[in-house]
Amino acid sequence: MNAGQNGTGTGIPEAQGFVIAEPASLAADYTIEGDFWQPTGQDPQIIFEDCGGWDAVRVNFAEPIVNDSILTLYYSDGAFDRFHRAEEYLMGGTETALVRVPAGSWDRLRLDIRTDFRLESMEAVPREPLTAAGAARKLMTGGGLLKLLLVLFILWAGILPKVKSMTVKAKTGKAAGGRTVWLDAVRALAAVMVVALHVAEPEALALPHDMKRYLFLQALCVFCINCNLLFVLISGALLLPWREENFTEFLKKRLWKVVLPLLVYACFYVFGMCASADGPWFLFKGYVRQVSSDTVFMGPHLRLMYVIISLYLIAWFLRFLLKSMTEREEKILAGTILVLRVLATLALEHRVPVGVMFYLADWPGLFLMGYFLTRDWMRKYDPAIIAAGAGAFAYSVYLVTVRDDFMNVVANTSSLMLFMSSALFVLFLRAEQLYHARRAEGAGACGANAFLSGARAFVSALSRQSYSILLIHFFVLHAVLRRGLMREGLPMTAELLLMFLLCLVISWIIAFVVDNTVIAAVDHVLRRNKEA
Length: 532
Known about the structure:
Number of helices: 17
Largest sheet: 6 strands, antiparallel
Order of helices and strands: EEEEEEEEEEEHHHHHHHHHHHHHHHHH
Strand content: 5-15%
Number of domains: 2
Oligomer: single chain
Structural class: alpha+beta
Shape: globular
Mean pLDDT: 82
C-alpha cells in the first residue's frame, strides 16, 4: 500500500494534518495486535513505496516509549543497502518521532523501530520547495534567529581570541611549547587506532569465522583495542608527576579540560542522532539524564571518558603518595599491580570466580602504570616489556581462533592489553631517547623518531585533537559516512581504507572546528568572568 491509501490489518489509524503513511509491506519480524507492535526477530522492517516527495516520517505513539531504543531509516531508489541509512534513536518517554529523510529523491523508505510500541498514526511530511523567501522565513522563525546569534557569539568568543593569540605569537616569534614529541605520537596513534577499530570491527563480525580475512580483521581489532589503555597511560604519565598546585587549581586546569569536551560532544549523540520530537525541554532532560549517568545511548564509547574523569578525581591525591615513595617502593607497587592484573586475567580466561576485589588491578592501577613506565628505573626493563607485548599480541590472536568471547579476555583492563600497550608506550619513549642521543653525537635522525621529526606538524595537529577525535568519530562513522557518502560495490579492502581515511579526516575537521569555536568560547567567557 502507498502513502495516502487506507489499508487494513496494519494497526495504523488515520492521522490528522499530514498525508497518511501506510506500509507497502511489513517484515515477518513484527507482530501486530491492534495498535501494539512488537519486534519478534533481528530484522523488523516497515517499508514505504512512492516516497519521492517526503521530507520526513512522523510517528505518533499511543503511549510513550519506555526505554531508549534504536531507530533506523533506510532510503533507496531500488534495493536497500548499509550505506544509505540514517541511524537514530528514540529517547525513553517519546510520544512523537520525526524521522528526517535525507535530501534527494528516494522512492523507497524502510523504517526499523527496534522496541515494543503502541502506534497512534504514521504521517508523511511533504517536502517544501527551497526558495530564498522560505529560507529567510525559517531563519527568522522557529529559533533560527537565535541560532544565528549563537553562531555570531561563538565567532566572537571563540575564533577571534584564537586569531589574536596567533597574531601575537607570529609577531613575537613565540610558539606554544612544553609538548613532548613521543607522547604526542602516542596520542596520535591512539586516535588512529580508535577510528580503525570501529571501522574494522563491524566488518569482521559479519564474516564467517573460518575466513582468513576474518582472522586478519580481528587481529587488527586486537591491536587497535589498545587505544583505550593508551589514553589512560598517557593521562597517568602527564598527571601523576609532582607539581605544586592546590586541589582547586588542579580541577580548574586539568579536570575541566576533559569534562567540557565530553559535555559538548555528547550533544552530537543526544541531540544530533535523536528522532524524538517532544520539544526542547524533553530533549534537555534526556541529555542531563544520559550524560550524568554514563548512558549516552548512541555513544557507548564515551564510557572511557567517564573512566578518565574518575581517574582525574584521584590524581591529585595520588601525587602525594608517589612523591613520598622510594624507588624500591615504586617497584613493589608496580609489581603488585602487574601480578594482580595477571591473576585477574587468568581467572577471567578460565572462568574461575574470584571473591577478592582486585582494586589495584583495575583502572587506577593501570593509571599508575602510566607514571611508572616513564620512570628512569623502568628503562632496564624495556626489552622485557617489548617482548611481553609481542607475546601478548600473538597469544591474543591465538585466542581469536579458539574462543568466540576472546574480547572478554583481551580487552579493557586485561593483562594482555597492559603488556601490548606498555610495549607501544616504551617503544615511542625509547625512540625519542635514541633520537636525542644520536643528535648529541652529531649523527642523523634514526628509526621511528626520524619519521616523527619529519612529520612533527602532522603528529602535533592530530595529537591536539586526539581526545576530541575519540569523542566525535563514532558520530561521523554512523551519522555521516553511512548517509550516502560511501557506496556499495567496492572491494572490502578499498572500502575499509576509504572509510577509515574519511572518518579520520572528517573527525579531525569537526574536532578542530568545535575545539576552536564552541569549547574555546566557553573557556574564553569563563576566563573573562574570573578576571572580572
